[in-house]
Write a structure and sequence with these properties.
Rossmann fold, 6-stranded parallel β-sheet, NADP, 2 domains, zinc, Zinc-ADH_QOR/CCCR, metal-binding, Quinone Oxidoreductase, Chain A, domain 1, ER
Length: 341
């Protein structure tokens, strides 16, 4: 089967950074679905895993690594323990960081982290959603404890880095839960984007944020989600209300002074959507349920895809182009590649 992989961690402008290769078609075992991949999207995790850790290039790998942690496709075969899907089903999912990724014609993935594709979306539109949706949903409704069905209506949520993939679906999930959303964006294009998605207020995270939020007549916010980098930590601590909560998806080596958080009795949560499949947690099935819930909301018109750019076909040249867009930090919404040929 065709696949896009890397054998050495290289800068994205190196033609060898991502390669077109042929691999054996994987066979489903246990609770695996064998999925014929139709579309994939690119996330920051792809670029982090592909980039060299230091200057220049890291040493070659013994085996090709296939990236890709967002996909939509059609179930081709199932393992002997599968109970929720059958061949011919259209699905979407983010996958498992400990296994080969979705940038291949076929992929095996555990049915417990797979959802039925929204019927109203095409494969490219659906592939834009899984990783970011799982991340935002878990961050808001599991880590911060916000009620997804509106019991916390009127509470304020600040999303730092709202124009990217996680923020784009996060705004929609928060508004569907009845929250007032303060989104951050630094460019005219992304400001328009987050407003179109439903943000109530927009502030510039390239400028002092505390002053901008206070200028809105808002002293503190109930919840804060940091969806870009922890360089905004001090502002987040200043703006969170006493006994509020901050959630972050960024791993950081920057200093994170905790005194201000302690005196407010506020909480810090980490979100990593791969934790469930990585550790085979007893509640892995929650990602299946989550994706099915989101599919129903999409089909009912309550949520929309965050797709912004489509490249195709799926090959190394287009994948390098997509990685470059993500690394530039200027993408809004999601970048998707569609079709092998």
């Amino acid at each position: 089967m065709k696949a896009v992989a890397f054998t050495q961690q290289l800068p994205v402008d190196n033609p060898q950074a991502l390669l077109d290769i042929d691999l054996p078609k994987p066979e489903p075992r246990g609770r695996d679905l064998q999925v014929a991949v139709r579309a994939v999207s690119v996330n920051p995790i792809d670029t982090k895993l592909r980039r060299p850790k230091g200057d220049g290039a890291d040493g070659p790998h013994s085996e090709p690594r296939v990236l890709g942690f967002d996909a939509s496709g059609v179930v081709e075969a199932v393992g002997p323990e599968v109970t929720r899907f059958k061949p011919g089903d259209e699905v979407y999912y983010a996958g498992d960081i400990t296994r080969q990724g979705s940038n291949a014609e076929y992929q095996c993935v555990d049915e417990r982290i797979v959802g039925a594709k929204p019927a109203t979306l095409d494969f490219a539109e659906a592939a834009a959603l899984p990783l970011t949706t799982i991340t935002a949903f878990e961050a808001f409704f599991e880590r911060l404890g916000i009620d997804p069905d509106g019991a916390d209506k009127g509470q304020r949520l600040m999303i730092i880095g709202a124009g990217g993939g996680v923020g784009s679906i996060g705004i929609q999930l928060a508004k569907a839960a009845g929250l007032e959303v303060i989104a951050t964006a630094s460019r005219e294009e992304t400001t328009r984007w987050v407003k179109a998605l439903g943000a109530d207020h927009v502030v510039n995270h390239r400028e002092p944020m505390v002053e901008q939020v206070r200028a809105l007549g808002i002293e503190h916010v109930d919840h804060i989600a940091i969806f870009n980098d922890m360089g905004h930590w001090d502002a987040a601590v200043e703006l969170i209300r006493p006994q509020g909560g901050i959630v972050s998806i960024d791993d950081t080596e920057q200093p994170m002074p905790m005194a201000g958080l302690k005196t407010k009795a506020a909480s810090l949560h980490w979100e990593f959507m791969f934790a469930r499949p990585m550790f085979k947690t007893p509640d892995m099935i929650e990602q299946h349920r989550l994706l099915n819930r989101v599919a129903r909301d999409v089909d009912a018109g309550r949520l929309r895809t965050t797709l912004n750019t489509v490249l195709g076909p799926i090959n190394a040249a287009h994948m390098r182009q997509a990685h470059a867009l993500i690394e530039a930090g200027t993408a809004k919404g999601k970048v998707v590649l569609e079709g092998f040929r």
